[in-house]
């Protein structure tokens, strides 16, 4: 998942850019789309799609028109049009899959509005680009110090130099509106270049910076996740997770995006479950739901006033009792349903491995005849 320069030296220390797969000067395969059409030729009479996908620092991608019909392939470094001057990025996708990506992101094909690719970057341009990238860390430290001195409630999370050095983009996070006009004047006077401020959310900040999640893998937002859907605590409730903010929150401080991954399956499974607040009315008393097991489709009920004594019911049994209650009928008690569940559970466990022994294929050991040995000793 990284470029060749990120591999280790003989003494196990990282070489190259030393960012271990999250560098901004090479591809590192962040948000990479596998080109499964690369070894297939176009049908006769169909021209190649003119747009190229190019990646910049920290997974930022844009689509450019290959107006000059340059021969570009994945991994090439190209000089592209910018608002002022030029920028340099790495080609990450070509061909028909670029059309699919642009349709997915609803980007227009109008060539008049599209930025173009100038040329393949020369070695002088690449060296200049690398020189500006090396300055970014020290500039970020200074930028944060200026913001702190002005007592602005904002955080400079990352900066990005344009390849020709004519513009610096400052990415910041803030909980409320910030007046940074004075800050921009200080930046322009100190760094002597055009300044652009871009506010990003906490999720976007985590995606740009990257990291390792609690699952032990790279963050989804920094590797493949491109759309950030809202996550609520109801997603954790449906999945019966503990509402512990420290476990449910990701590195961005918000609820983890992965809480939405299996939510649809849980919602489908819970369609047949009765509502938790629905009470079961019996001749013995009213029962209240205490616990549910979504995978086994089981519920535990307890009579009002007898909270320590729980009764196990299946989803169908609970729905049957509710239907009886709707027609103003009362079942005798929950005990009769519980005995049925216990009998069914016992029979299922008996037939899991059958009546065969787990050691039925082992060779039987020969019994040692201690009596014969003792008799021989006495004879001798």
Summarize this structure as a short list of keywords or feature phrases:
4-stranded antiparallel beta sheet, GMP Synthetase, Chain A, domain 3, 12 strands, disordered N terminus
What's the quick description here?
By secondary structure, this protein is α+β, with helices and mostly antiparallel strands.
Secondary-structure map:
Elements: E1 51-55, E2 61-65, E3 77-81, E4 86-93, H1 96-104, E5 117-120, H2 123-149, E6 155-161, E7 167-173, H3 181-191, E8 194-199, H4 202-209, H5 233-238, H6 245-248, H7 263-269, E9 280-281, E10 286-293, E11 298-303, E12 310-314, H8 315-326, H9 335-350, H10 370-379
Parallel strand pairs: 7-8
Antiparallel strand pairs: 1-2, 1-4, 3-4, 3-5, 6-7, 9-10, 10-11, 11-12
Helix pairs in contact: 2-3
How many β-strand runs?
12
Assign the structural class, choosing from mainly alpha, mainly beta, alpha/beta, alpha+beta, or little secondary structure: alpha+beta
Order of adjacent strands in the largest pleated sheet = 2-1-4-3-5
Helical content class: 25-40%
Stretches where pLDDT falls below 50 for ≥5 residues?
1-5, 7-15, 18-27
**Any idea what the radius of gyration is?**
33 Å
Q: Main β-sheet, in a few words?
A: 5 strands, antiparallel
Strand content: 15-25%
**Secondary-structure element order, N to C:** EEEEHEHEEHEHHHHEEEEHHH
Question: How would you name the oligomeric state of the polypeptide chains in this document?
Answer: single chain
Based on Cα principal axes, name the global outline.
extended
Structurally, the number of domains stands at 4
Mean pLDDT: 82
């Amino acid at each position: 998942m990284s470029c060749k320069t990120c591999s280790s030296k003989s003494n196990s220390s990282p070489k190259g850019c030393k960012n271990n797969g999250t560098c901004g000067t090479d591809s590192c395969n962040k948000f990479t789309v596998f080109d499964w059409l690369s070894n297939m030729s176009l049908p006769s009479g169909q021209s190649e799609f003119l747009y190229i996908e190019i990646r910049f620092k920290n997974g930022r991608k844009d689509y450019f028109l290959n107006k000059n019909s340059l021969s570009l392939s994945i991994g090439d470094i190209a000089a592209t049009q910018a608002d002022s001057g030029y920028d340099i990025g790495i080609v990450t996708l070509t061909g028909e899959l670029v059309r699919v990506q642009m349709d997915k992101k609803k980007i227009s094909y109008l060539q008049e509005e599209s930025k173009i690719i100038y040329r393949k970057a020369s070695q002088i341009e690449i060296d200049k680009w690398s020189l500006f990238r090396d300055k970014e860390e020290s500039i970020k430290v200074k930028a944060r110090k200026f913001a702190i001195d002005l007592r602005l409630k904002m955080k400079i999370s990352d900066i990005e130099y344009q390849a020709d050095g004519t513009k610096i983009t400052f990415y910041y996070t803030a909980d409320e509106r910030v007046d940074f006009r004075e800050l921009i004047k200080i930046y322009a006077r100190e760094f002597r270049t055009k300044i652009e401020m871009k506010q990003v959310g906490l999720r976007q900040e985590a995606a740009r910076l990257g990291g390792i999640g609690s699952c032990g893998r790279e963050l989804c937002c920094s590797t493949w996740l491109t759309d950030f859907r809202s996550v609520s605590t109801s997603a954790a409730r449906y999945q019966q997770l503990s509402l512990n903010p420290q476990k449910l929150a990701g590195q961005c401080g918000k609820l983890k995006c992965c809480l939405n991954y299996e939510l649809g399956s849980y919602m489908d499974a819970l369609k047949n479950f009765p509502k938790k607040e629905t009470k079961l009315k019996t001749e013995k008393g009213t029962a209240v739901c205490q616990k549910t097991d979504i995978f086994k489709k089981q519920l535990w009920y307890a009579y009002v006033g007898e909270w320590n004594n729980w009764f196990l019911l299946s989803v169908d049994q609970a729905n049957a009792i509710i239907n009886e209650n709707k027609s103003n009928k009362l079942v005798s008690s929950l005990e009769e349903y519980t005995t049925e569940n216990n009998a069914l559970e016992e029979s299922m466990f008996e037939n899991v491995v059958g009546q065969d022994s787990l050691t039925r294929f082992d060779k039987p050991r020969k019994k040692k005849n201690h009596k014969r040995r003792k008799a021989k000793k006495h004879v001798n």
